[in-house]
Amino acid sequence: MKISEIGEFGFIDAVKEGTLFNPSSVVVGIGDDGAVYKTTEGMEQIAVIDTMVEGSHFIIGKTASWFDVGYKAVASNLSDIAAMGGIPTHIVLSTAIPTDMEMADLTALYEGMKDICKTYGVNIIGGDTVLSKGALVITVAAFGEVESGKAICRSGAKPGDVVAVSHTIGDSAGGLDVLLHGIDGYTHLKKAHQFPTPQIQLGRALVAYRAHSLNDISDGLASESNEIAKASGVDLILDKEAIPCSEELRQWAQSVQKDIYAYVFNGGEDYELIFTMAPDDFEALRREYPYVTAIGQARAGKGQVYVRHEGKTSVLQPTGWNHFHR
Amino acid sequence: MKISEIGEFGFIDAVKEGTLFNPSSVVVGIGDDGAVYKTTEGMEQIAVIDTMVEGSHFIIGKTASWFDVGYKAVASNLSDIAAMGGIPTHIVLSTAIPTDMEMADLTALYEGMKDICKTYGVNIIGGDTVLSKGALVITVAAFGEVESGKAICRSGAKPGDVVAVSHTIGDSAGGLDVLLHGIDGYTHLKKAHQFPTPQIQLGRALVAYRAHSLNDISDGLASESNEIAKASGVDLILDKEAIPCSEELRQWAQSVQKDIYAYVFNGGEDYELIFTMAPDDFEALRREYPYVTAIGQARAGKGQVYVRHEGKTSVLQPTGWNHFHR
């Protein structure tokens, strides 16, 4: 059945079940002019918004299924909340849907959103649905909470800070390349691209361990590290060899004879975290979260990023993943 | 200059000035991974989201300018907050922009958003910008507050309630017709279509005067009245002659020999309010807000809407303005 046959209200009825995964704070959910929810005393609210466009951010049947698209549309938003040190609580979403889209595909899109919302106890409290003359456009706005005054901005890096990242970097861009080439295997890379894990728990730990600055790596390490350097007015010196890369990414880069650092610095959509903090706090964090790795230091400067490699130091330009230029 | 030449970061820099019109509650505005804001003790939060698609919701140069589109994209969201009885506080927005769009047009779009945000003291705290392969798609998510437990839902209508609306109904659909015909004059109708006024002050008064149910009229009176009847499980009996219509709409309907009630019942985007309340409370409200008009009564029933006219009563189907079917 096509979406144009079932209509907006029929569609809302079909997807509105099973949307509350932490209902205690929801006063009014889907089905009225607006959603109403309670906030927690002593917490500030976080709001983020992110859009994915079919054919630009994903190619159905090649880089993603409709389920994956729903999952990732939410994941990228939850990652932005993790990048402030917050706990995600609710989302509202909007889809501009091609007239001839199959209901089964649209249902899969919503199942992907519900899947990740269930994992993180996030409520889907509202939405809008319109017809698109072109490709599908999905926008998710997510809300979260963080203890008052404790949100971690990109502008707080201080000279002497350790610069660190979570897990391995560049896997999502590697996975995208694998998918575009239609190659079997490389399941870790593909999963990194299709089902990124928002680093919510680590974001919360970074609040507890007093991290000074924090970004999620959505536009590549080059772009994100430069944002921290520029916003904080400090220089970051990264040690190229220290940046954690997965074995699969090394294998893939070698098999296509591509520089692995193109994925690491200029890839995107890793949704890992890059952060800076005092060395002692970092050591304490690392004992609890062994998947964080120091990749450099912050020092007084003018907001530049440098990469050290085999005794040479070069400037790292912010040129990264920029959907605007695709 | 085209948007593709200036890039995402250049564009954000160009529009991020002058976005906070009530900054006291904003901890982190545009420019980090997420926005952070404070809420007011004793208040619950409202969230709404609404999308407009070029060519479907508006035709540039015919039904709207880019400024108008920005204004209306926010207005429709503020109207949804008014329809819960709330005070709008912040918005986040996302635009999927055609590659060849002129920066001047995009700037006009943002000026329209800033204009209405300034009027209502609403902060623009975040956004996302991506390139569209097709038409422009703009999504706004708006937040607001309402005293805990006081949000007015569509489900609260009670037998004996007065059914009432604000101002006049059908003007926006009339204005759209005038614009599509390219006719001069009819400034009231055109303004109703291009610059709808979210009824925030009235929504707040409806909280104070204990209204039982409330919708904004975004999809036509037939659809909205049926939503209240169905959600509340009561019948609404509307008096056709009592529904307030503007003189301009009468003139326009006569000049094109169209039934005025096609605009009234099945038009859309009026962004006026329809509500039900106890008769005594309505009388008190009307003394303070003379632009509200009683158009019928609620009575025990099965969730139907009836229209009385010249001694006859007929069922009013919910068929209204439905963007899904355009």
Verbal overview:
2 copies of one chain form a homodimer. Chain A is of the alpha+beta class and 326 residues long. Chain A folds into 2 domains: 6-147, 2-Layer Sandwich (60s Ribosomal Protein L30, Chain: A); 162-325, Phosphoribosyl-aminoimidazole Synthetase, Chain A, domain 2, CATH 3.90.650. Chain A has helices at 3-15, 66-82, 103-120, 171-181, 187-194, 200-208, 221-232, 247-255, 260-266, 279-288, and strands spanning 26-28, 35-37, 43-53, 87-98, 123-132, 137-147, 162-166, 213-216, 234-239, 273-277, 292-300, 305-309, 312-315. In chain A, helix 1 (3-15) runs parallel beside helix 3 (103-120), helix 2 packs parallel to helix 3 (103-120) and helix 2 (66-82) packs parallel to helix 6. In chain A, 56% of the residues are buried. Mean pLDDT of chain A is 94; it is low at 322-326. Chains A and B meet through helix 1, strand 2, strand 3, strand 4 and strand 5 of A and helix 1, strand 2, strand 3, strand 4 and strand 5 of B.
Task: Map the helices and strands.
Two copies of one chain form a homodimer.
Chain A: H1 3-15, E1 26-28, E2 35-37, E3 43-53, H2 66-82, E4 87-98, H3 103-120, E5 123-132, E6 137-147, E7 162-166, H4 171-181, H5 187-194, H6 200-208, E8 213-216, H7 221-232, E9 234-239, H8 247-255, H9 260-266, E10 273-277, H10 279-288, E11 292-300, E12 305-309, E13 312-315
Parallel strand pairs in A: 4-5, 9-12
Antiparallel strand pairs in A: 1-2, 3-6, 4-6, 7-10, 7-11, 8-10, 9-11, 12-13
Helix pairs in contact in A: 1-3, 2-3, 2-6, 4-5, 4-8
Domain PurM-like N-terminal (chains A, B): 31-146
Binding site for ATP (chains A, B): 110, 127-128, 154, 218
Pathway (chains A, B): Cofactor biosynthesis; thiamine diphosphate biosynthesis; thiamine diphosphate from thiamine phosphate: step 1/1
